[in-house]
């Protein structure tokens, strides 16, 4: 049985929002089906839905949902919990999904910086390409340091707001 929308919510308006925000994510490079599933989970009060609920809400096939959740699981944006005695999975997202996304991106920048530092060594630190790459390493290291501070400030602000 699909998750019932909160009383007073217009299901068509919710689907419209899902499609509009999906368009924003796809313009930023996010694959369309995973973006739709991601936004559907964002709009769920429980932030958890089964594949059948996702398929019904998004008016798409089970195969489409399967591929989309596989992508989201692989990149770490959602989790899945099985139902005891059933093959049914409940797909969920963290309450801090946006911070999780920033942390994932930061880890990616850190890996890129490490690989590019090796590129500087291979190309030679005095070559034009090596100099350019070294500047990129410094940039990613700076961004990474700023992200850590930014996330810490956000956690402090959120905690202050939650307790106040």
Mean pLDDT: 91
The order of strands across the largest sheet is 1-3-2
Q: What is the general shape? A: elongated
CATH fold naming of the largest domain: Arc Repressor Mutant, subunit A
Strand content is 5-15%
CATH superfamily of the largest domain: Winged helix-like DNA-binding domain superfamily/Winged helix DNA-binding domain
Number of domains: 2
> What are the segments in which pLDDT stays under 50 over at least 5 consecutive residues?
none
Count of helix runs: 6
In sequence order, what are the helices and strands, one letter per element?
HHEHHEEHH
CATH class of the largest domain: Mainly Alpha
Helix content: 55-70%
Task: Describe, in plain words, how this protein is organized in 3D.
The chain has 2 domains: 11-92, Arc Repressor Mutant, subunit A (Orthogonal Bundle), CATH 1.10.10.10; 97-163. Helices cover 69% and strands 7% of the residues. It has 6 helices and 3 strands. The protein has helices at residues 11-27, 32-43, 51-58, 62-74, 97-123, 128-163, and strands at residues 48-50, 79-82, 89-92. Strands 1-3-2 form a 3-stranded antiparallel beta sheet. Helix 2 crosses helix 4 (62-74) and helix 5 runs antiparallel to helix 6.
